[in-house]
Amino acid sequence: MRAALIALVVVVVGGAAFLATQVPFLPPGVVADVADLAPHYVAGDTIPVQVGLRSTSYRKTLIQVSAESRGPAGPQPIGAPTTFVLGARLSTGPFTFAFLTTPATPAGPYRVRVRIAELEANGQTLPLYDGERAFLLAPAVSAAPTAPPPPPPAPVAKAKPKPKPGQAVIAMKFSEPEGVYAQGETLPVQLEVRNSGTATTTIEVEIAADVPGELPGKSFGAITLKPGDKKTFSHSYPLTTTVPSGSHTLEAAAIDANTSEPIAQASTTFEIRAAATPGP
Fold first, then answer.
1. Which residues of the chain have pLDDT under 50?
2. Which of 19, 121, 130, 222 has its CA at a distance of 20 to 30 angstroms from the CA of residue 112?
3. Half-sphere exposure of 20 (CA within 13 A, CB side)
């Protein structure tokens, strides 16, 4: 059992002598170093509570360190208590208790209380340090509301150019293929070509796929379209297992028979699915 020093003080009051007993003083076996905190923090900050310890004893000491915050919301533990063995005449730390605040943590004055105790073999707890650090927690700074972006300008409808006198205007459109097809099926092709101009023209119509090795290009030859004429071209491709599965594109072009320049184009996208594998 550790010896305690008891101070006896004789107090004279009105001529009479009284014997007063002071609080027992136990020689400290551990020196605590609790770092100071900043005077101000903002809600949302992480507030570090750093504690270092130094043993002045010639024996090992079982130490427990705990911390709690005391503020507008009442006392709250800061993490879990830490228990460890401090060797004789050794130092440890500093280690940190992190007081985590959020923007919703109440603002106001706070105190962080740090308690250090020795856990004795007989189960008793011997206080070695009990101190506080104070600070002020300010409310979280709210970001200024940002103005919503302006609405995009309304699209301006562009008037379709009117054909000049004596000018042919060729338009092309696929009605097939579209959607999903499977290997082993036939891929249908339907292409409509129209002359919405005011002059007769002669064109050559061609189609080509993005896998020309499996779906070779096709030329429908030269045709003459008068103003207002429309013609539909049809074709089909057998989808063998060599045609890769996935998304594919088929394109069409109208070539001016006189200048050999493309004057209209169209495209369509479709998907080819691998053939189903027969079961055992």
1. 1-27
2. 121
3. 9
Q: What values do phi and psi take at 10, rounded to 5?
A: -95, 120
pTM comes to 0.43
What is the structure's pLDDT at 190? 93
pLDDT of residue 50: 92
Give the CATH fold of the 27-138 domain. Immunoglobulin-like (2.60.40)
User: What pLDDT does residue 139 have?
Assistant: 93
Residue with tokens 């550790």: 2
Residue 10, C-beta contacts closer than 8 angstroms, at least 6 positions apart: 17, 18, 19, 20
Which residue type sits at 8? L
Q: Which of 275, 278, 276, 277 is nearest to 241 (CA)?
A: 275
Q: Evaluate whether 27-138 and 170-273 have a shared fold.
A: yes
| Cα–Cα distance, 177 to 270 (Å, whole number) | 6
Closest by Cα among 34, 38, 99, 37 to 73: 99
**271 Cβ neighbours under 8 A, 6+ residues apart:** 179, 180, 181, 246, 247, 248
The whole-number pLDDT of residue 87 equals 86
Task: Look at residue 43 in the predicted model and tell me its pLDDT.
Answer: 92
Beta bridge partners of 20: 9
Q: For the chain, give every domain's residue range.
A: 27-138, 170-273
Q: How far, CA to CA in Å, does 157 sit from each of 154, 160, 161, 235?
A: 9, 9, 12, 36
Strand residue runs (E) in the chain: 8-13, 16-21, 30-34, 40-42, 46-55, 61-71, 74-77, 82-86, 91-100, 108-119, 125-138, 170-176, 179-182, 186-195, 201-209, 218-225, 230-238, 246-256, 262-273
